[in-house]
Design brief:
- The protein is built from 8 helices and 15 strands.
- The chain is an alpha+beta fold.
- The radius of gyration is 19 Å and the shape is globular.
- The structure holds ligand DP6.
- The site of ligand DP6 has 14 residues, from helix 4.
Length: about 325
Amino acid sequence: MPAPLTATAIAHPNIALVKYWGKRDDVANLPATGSLSVTLDAMRTRTRVCFEPGLGADRVRLDGQEDAATSRRVSACLDLLRRRAGLAHGAVVESDNDFPTGAGLASSASGFAALVTAADAALGLGLPREELAQVARIGSGSAARSLFGGFALLRNQPDGGVAVGPLLAPEAWPLRVVIAITSALPKDVGSRDGMAASRATSPYYEAWLRSHGADLEAGVRHVQGRDFAALAAVAEHSCLKMHAVMLTTQPPLLYWLPATLACLQALQVLRRAGTPVFFTIDAGPQVKAICEPAAVPAVRAALAAVPGVTRVIDSGLGPGAYRANG
Ligand code: DP6
């Protein structure tokens, strides 16, 4: 059967519990560190890819807007898949998020995961998720993890490559993620530029790399053992260590707002009073609180009461990227 040349896919953002920050190779977009994440179900990117004979260059629209830098990254991923399919057609790509783009909510992760899933279907390639993850990684390192549901793991390999795959299914440990939105504005410095600046200027960058492997292996162990308290400790440590690297970058990468810090303090108060919850923050001002389902009402209420929090989103753990109608 000939390839349909058009397909739609949906992918969900993921949140790293052990963080990725820094690259070994900028051109191949190889991460300097591994990472461990949870894929969410509450937010989604929907992407339609249509390969058209006679179209020379790709046309990419993200939430209705064209953006040259994003288009280049999209074309780099599509080129790899076109080569596999032996096809030269340009593609029309339309991608929509149901959440703020570029504001520390992992829109590039869900975006590139949806892109490669749709393009794979449109080209009739049927590649396994592990291979699609390697293509998505070229677009955005964190996107490789959104190919998988629940807990996903990206590990650097001794041969210089990267292995990405599932660690634990969502139903095996159905944690919740409560997200406090403190600003919907796009960030000033994106992850890509921020990582390059940290590597070049932060005196903590080498220490971050040196100590990261132990955090990742501890994170893997605690997810496999479903040890909430131990995972909380390693996840908060990895997050704050990454932000220490960001803060000591020149010029500094200060992604937090006053409400970001106030959320952390509200969660600390909750935890001291016996509610099992921990936080993580990415390259943006939003706070993600991870908790057991029974703790959601208390966590929601505590975050919603923080001045500067404009919206609270409660999410379960979601599936990996999948093909959709349309
Ligand atoms: C802070 O995956 O957005 O969210 O590979 O340059 O596209 P690129 O970076 P990206 O970086 C994510 C950084 C982070 C931490 C994480 O998700 O692990």
